[in-house]
Amino acid sequence: MKQTLINKLENKTATIGVVGLGYVGIPLSMTFTDAGYKVLGFDIDQTKIEAISAGKTYIKHIPDQAISNAINKGLVATTDFSRATEADALILCVPTPLDLHREPDLSFVLDTMDSLLPYLREGQVVSLESTTYPGTTDEELKPRIESTGLRVGENIFLVYSPEREDPGNPDFNTRTIPKVCGGDNEASQQAGLALYQHVIDKVVPVSSTRAAEMTKLLENIHRAVNIGLVNEMKTVADKMGVDIYEVIDAAASKPFGFVPYYPGPGLGGHCIPIDPFYLTWKAREYGVNTRFIELAGEVNSAMPNYVLNKIVGGLNNQKKAINGSKILMLGIAYKKNIDDMRESPSVEIMQLIHDGGAKIHYADPYVPVFPKMRRYAFQLNSVAVTAQTIADYDCVVVGTEHDDFDYAMIQREAKLIVDARGKYRGEYENVVHA
């Protein structure tokens, strides 16, 4: 059974099922089609399926042509989960957010797995790529799979292989980023390696699904903790009248023992603001208090309020109150040059500004219409960034440093700029560094 599957993966006669056609699933699907596999892409959103089937993108940094090429090479997008039985591999790429109490929300993973159960069959390999706490794969997915009568490691195989997508990064793509893979057992590991090693340049095996799950968390907690450190350093440097960016650049001249991290208005994206809480939640089950990780989370979570205070202070210096002021948020994606809004600190700052009584607008060429979000509901469209519109606002907040913006023009025309991204180095009469 295992060898038959491995042979199909090696000779590329296997059909690959990718469940969840978002920022992870679409690039992964294209990587498999580029390698010569037939791919079934599953999603519950009919609008996405129709767009993909027509060769159209809904993710700004992925062009239409890339979607069309994938369709021509064998990508079929569908909402019909019964077709999962056609797939030799099922790769789950669905969200793992936090709930309103900042505890793990596995509903997308578990609901997806439950939807696939009637269509599982012998000879398949199931891979979970969604970021989650150690134990999810063997505690949650394995019992569900085996409730069908299949036996993991005997006639069906189970691995965890965390996604490592970095949307908009021109230097790395799905194929060139090394891929960690951990199997539930040795047979599953062999099947998982066969699944990925023909499409990814380097596959990194680890001893178990839990080791793979922990690896992903360590990667992102490492970033969250270091960003928390530099955000705290920023607040200290600000009080002392020191330019934190100058300090970081100088420290980065050391050729060893230092890696530069840069401050910002908070953490955004589908990983860094969320993943630490998956580990801290699970650690409590073992009686472990992850104080260091939680402290970094507190520092990063406080940054939107830090930016708000800078806005209030800047307006006060111009003898204006935030209540009644007209404020423009420049950039609302979670990082520059992409359209991904997940956990964007700019949106939280917008809400704080709104709650303070200001009239809030935004400008973002990557997000022409403010999308539906679980926690925020702004009925807004992106405004044009012209000299006239910039001059019309009491304050412009640099929330996301898209390359599309004319920062020199904005500095000339704005009454007040609160810069949360370090775009304006040095001293300007109308710039407040945040």
CATH superfamily of the largest domain: NAD(P)-binding Rossmann-like Domain
Helix content: 25-40%
Strand residues, percent? 5-15%
CATH architecture of the largest domain: 3-Layer(aba) Sandwich
Shape: globular
Task: Decide which structural class fits the backbone.
Answer: alpha/beta
Low-pLDDT runs of 5+ residues are none
Can you write the helix and strand succession as a string?
Answer: HEHEHHEEHEHEEHEHHHHHEHEHEHEE
Strand order, sheet with most strands: 3-2-1-4-5-6-7-8
Tally of helical runs: 15
> CATH topology of the largest domain, anyone?
Rossmann fold
Structure summary:
The protein has 434 residues and is α/β, with parallel strands linked by helices.
Present the secondary structure layout:
Layout: H1 2-10, E1 15-19, H2 25-34, E2 38-42, H3 46-53, H4 64-73, E3 75-78, E4 89-92, H5 107-116, E5 124-128, H6 136-146, E6 156-160, E7 179-183, H7 186-196, E8 203-206, H8 209-239, H9 244-251, H10 275-285, H11 291-301, H12 303-317, E9 326-330, H13 345-355, E10 359-363, H14 387-391, E11 395-398, H15 407-413, E12 417-419, E13 431-433
Helix pairs in contact: 1-7, 2-4, 8-10, 8-11, 12-13
